[in-house]
Amino acid sequence: MKKIKIGEIVARKSHNKDILFRIKNIIETKNEKIAILTGIIERVEADSELSDLEIVSEERLDKDLHAIQKRIEGKIEKLNPINKNKYMVTGKILHLDGDKKYSEKSYRYYRKLGLNAIVKNIPEYKQPKVVYHLLNIYKPDILVITGHDGMIKNATRYNDLYNYRNSKYFIETVKEARKYDKEVHKNLVIFAGACQSYFEALISAGANFASSPARILIDFIDPLIVAEKVAITERYKYITIEDIESELRDGKDGINGIGANGKMYKMIK
Predict the structure, then answer these.
(1) pTM of the model
(2) pLDDT tens digit string along 180-220?
(3) Contact status, residue 220 vs residue 102, Cβ threshold 8 Å
(4) Cβ 149 vs Cβ 165: under 8 Å
(5) End-to-end CA distance of the chain
(6) How is domain 79-266 classified at the architecture level of CATH?
(7) Within 10 A of 239 (CB to CB), how many other CB atoms are there?
(8) Considering the domain 1-75 in this protein, what is its CATH number?
(9) Per the omega criterion (within 30 degrees of 0), is the bond before 212 cis?
(10) In the Cβ-directed half-sphere of 209, how many Cα atoms lie within 13 Å?
(11) Where along the chain do its domains lie?
């Protein structure tokens, strides 16, 4: 039997192998080895006893990756022709992502759509420390703050910040971004959160859209869809979650918010 190590793609036997994870780290305790896991498709972080994990077959991995790739390609095929109008300038996106592989996928997605996006792989805990500086450098119209998150195992109190793995970092990052926005008056549009994130606190901190109202897992692509919609909508139009929910995997259960004006404008000929 192959030894399970950091970097392996695994599934949890106790959860019917429903989600594919990559092993981020392995911690040795007195009684058991614990793996820290990050989702391959969903933006979730979890932990599990090593004994509960099973290495995923190449066939299963290829099947799941093919499904998400097919969804991305489907989105690109439906690209609104207005994006190709040389006189229309889409909103500029700054995307901070705690997952390196998701950062790479996100960049390819934005590029294929022809969007003006800068993607930075920043671990969740570092995002509050660097966001102000990055906003000053890139001066975006839209900020995406994401990565991995999740509720602590067996946690039931949704309003306890300490029951979330990375929500506190996302909240701090939103607050830092709003400090910047208050100074420059740019009316920055912010998406924040990942799987099972503390939705209410993210909105209270200043996010326009956030996850996850129903504390469910969200798709890798969901934050990108929100950023894309804001970037390709004209400034005089106000976007609500009703304009986006049909394109999200789980609609309002996964993502909601107060809305925002679009960020696309017409160049003077």
Answers:
(1) 0.91
(2) 999 999 899 999 999 999 999 999 999 999 999 999 999 99
(3) yes
(4) yes
(5) 66
(6) 3-Layer(aba) Sandwich (3.40)
(7) 20
(8) 2.30.30.140
(9) yes
(10) 34
(11) 1-75, 79-266
